[in-house]
# Entry
Amino acid sequence: MDQFKIIRKIGHGSFGDVYLARNIQTQEEIAIKKENKNRSKLSKLDKEYKICQSLPKMGFTNAYSVFADFKYNYMTMKLLGPSIEDIFRLSKTNMIPSIIFKFANQAIIRLKQFHQKGFIHQDVKPHNFLMSIDNQILYLIDYGLSKQYIFGGQHIKVTSNNKFVGTARYASLNTHMGITQSRRDDLESLGYIFIYFMNGKLPWQNINAINKKEKFKKIKSKKLMISCKELCHGLPNVFYIYITYCRDLTFYQTPDYDYLINLFKN
# Structure
């Protein structure tokens, strides 16, 4: 870490904090993700770094290096701009539909590219979409919970009673039900982000519960009870079409990404 000066904390990933830092030699500002070694026997940063190396540079985390000291693992990365969640909160109101449609187009493209590399994200949420410094390109970040769904050209098998992985607010119905995640689940989670931005909230937000387990249970029940029609009430029909399409996808099915992109283009 002697080569870098930590300036301040700027974010939190699925398994570590992210800091703004400066390369002392070049004076370049970068981002550094820090992982506590004691929390896991296997370094998730090593896993994330390997995923980064297989992805395009534009629209995904540009990881420069990984290294460690006696207590932490580190990954240095290209510095990006604010998250879509930050932009939403700064707007202090519902986002303008035209901005949401622009986000939708780029976000679907990012998931298409990610899936084409053989990975599913498993934690699609507003915090994991960042804009470039010039505010032109959308980036999909944080692959700590991501996994391969293709091995040797074969799709993974579907199983039940799986441990919950992801963020409850945006998780798909099948994820709540303990069914193995696939491409459809990333896309469904993205649909909930669209509705969150359009309405300013989701029906299962701010649920009172005595603990995390009970809260997850209540969120699951609310998602099961509410129909796509009710969820998208008052919104342009494109959102109903999108959510319905994603929920109707089968586990092994390759989504028609271009169809979904064109929904928002039109």
